Amino acid sequence: MDYSTYFTNHSTAEIAKDLIGRPLIFDEKQGKLGGYIVEAEAYVGKKDRAAHSFGGRRSQANEGLYRRGGTLYIYSQRQYFFFDIACQEEDEPQGVLIRAIEPAWGIETMVKNRHGKDGVLLTNGPGKMMQALGITSRNWDLHFLSDSPFKVDLADQNRRLPQEIIAAPRVGINQSDPYWAKQPLRFYVAGNPYVSDMKKRNYAKNNGWA
Fold this sequence. Notes:
Largest sheet: 8 strands, antiparallel
Keywords: DNA damage, DNA repair, Hydrolase
GO molecular function: alkylbase DNA N-glycosylase activity; DNA binding
Oligomer: single chain
Distance between the termini: 24 Å
Number of domains: 1
Shape: globular
Number of helices: 5
EC number: 3.2.2.-
Enzyme class: hydrolase
Pfam families: Pur_DNA_glyco
Structural class: alpha+beta
Number of strands: 8
CATH class: Alpha Beta
């Protein structure tokens, strides 16, 4: 299945859930870096108060969301960068934020990129993940996934299967809007230690993989 089809053929929430367990790889100057997606959040466009495109907001900064499904939307907050993939057809500004991966490739290099931080601290959050991959700019914003050094491996035989995928409210959503704050649009591997807010007491055997 190609990216155009994958990122437009289902609801954004269904896409976010289906990405769990799939490899995310960044292969540029430092060699192959990445891991298995363990946490992802769906943002469902103009009606979603938590989305950057809420109410039809459109600017140079969030243009990636308005492109066809499979386009990269890389944005920054403070010194951190975040990795989002546009979903749905052009001008329907929805997307999935990849929040965390379980490292699998290029771990030594990723530790260097994180200034020595390792273990779960290596990639257990969206900013940490991008720092581990060596992303320090929005250089790949607006690129289609297949025209970038990023790859999401959609081959089912390369996917790790979670024992359970949890659907929960998203992280850091303004509680003044209880409806969107409570929507179960964050998906993660139950008990995986690399999930951004996973407590040590909840770590699962085999990191929650089947």
